[in-house]
Every structure is written in structure tokens, then in C-alpha cells.
Design goal:
Number of strands: 4
Helix content: 25-40%
Structural class: alpha+beta
Distance between the termini: 70 Å
Order of helices and strands: HHEHEEEHH
Number of domains: 1
CATH topology: Bacterial Protein-export protein SecB
Shape: elongated
Oligomer: single chain
Largest sheet: 4 strands, antiparallel
CATH class: Alpha Beta
Strand content: 35-45%
């Protein structure tokens, strides 16, 4: 094998450079998670260590979730998944965790309506496993059993929100 052949095997074509090396051409659709990060994380357990002595700890856990996005550049968006988990034992607060899990996404080649759907469903669904792990870890480090958040159907939430907008 000649040196010229060896060099051409490792070379990246201009098309591959333009598409990020994933084989997608300039006119093809692309969806890429470019960056993943925690934007904000807060954990409070205001009644520790007293709650650990309560033999009848029967927690009521409430979760609030929402997502938001903003356009950073042409075809690049920041999506933030906001989660708030508040566990109570009667009126006594056991713990409160608030997390903003964020990601930067490249969404290229999609019609505007499809882009809106991706930002409202697929992006939050991509972020949710990371947020779930972050919350479970914070609760576990606080001395409580790890919190197992169930999967969320973001498509159904998006459809429900669109339906309520039409009826309003």
C-alpha cells in the first residue's frame, strides 16, 4: 500500500466536514445534541436529622415539570428541562430538589412546525434521563432512598397542551 493511499483513507471529505462527519448531506435533516449541562441544581432537607427518627415516614411526593427553549443561532437551540420535586410527611417538608437540565441542540433541515415539535418533545425526552439521574443522586446523597422517577411521555404532554390552546 502506498503512502498516498494510507493518507486518503483517513481524510475527511468536504461533505463530511460540512455535515459534522455523520454522513448527512447539506440538504438532509439533522438532529444533534451538541452539549449537555446542569444549569441549576438546588437541594434542601430543612428538617434533617429529625425526619430520620420518624418511624412512620409516609411521604407525599409532588413533581412539577416544564421545558423551555431559546434560539442561540440559526438552527441551534438551548432547551432547558425544569424539574421540581417536593416530598412531604404530612405538613413537614422532607426534601425539595430543583433541577434545570439543559442541552444545546442542532436542528437542521426540518420545517418550522416539525422543529417546534422536536423542541417540545424530543429534546426534553433526551434530557430527562440525565435529569432523573441527577435528582436521584441528590436525594440519595441527602440520606434518603434514591428517588425513582417514572418515564414521561412528552409527546402526550405536547398534544395535551396543543389541545388546550385550541379550546382556549
Amino acid at each position: 500500500m502506498s503512502k498516498k493511499t494510507k493518507a486518503s483513507k483517513g481524510a475527511i471529505s468536504e461533505t463530511e466536514k460540512a455535515s459534522g462527519g455523520n454522513g448527512a448531506g447539506a440538504d438532509e435533516k439533522q438532529f444533534l445534541l451538541q452539549q449537555l449541562y446542569i444549569k441549576d441544581l438546588s437541594y434542601e432537607a430543612p428538617n434533617t436529622p429529625d425526619v430520620f427518627n420518624d418511624q412512620k415516614l409516609d411521604t407525599d411526593t409532588q413533581m412539577n415539570i416544564k421545558s423551555s427553549h431559546r434560539q442561540l443561532a440559526d438552527e441551534t437551540y438551548e432547551v432547558v428541562l425544569h424539574l421540581s420535586i417536593h416530598a412531604k410527611n404530612g405538613e413537614q417538608s422532607v426534601f425539595l430538589v430543583e433541577l434545570e437540565q439543559a442541552g444545546i441542540f442542532l436542528i437542521k433541515g426540518y420545517p418550522e412546525e416539525d422543529t417546534k415539535g422536536l423542541l417540545a418533545t424530543y429534546c426534553p425526552a433526551t434530557l430527562f434521563p440525565y435529569a432523573r439521574e441527577g435528582i436521584s443522586s441528590a436525594v440519595g446523597r441527602g440520606g434518603f432512598p434514591p428517588l425513582m422517577l417514572q418515564p414521561i411521555n412528552f409527546d402526550a404532554l405536547y398534544a395535551q397542551a396543543a389541545e388546550s390552546e385550541q379550546t382556549a
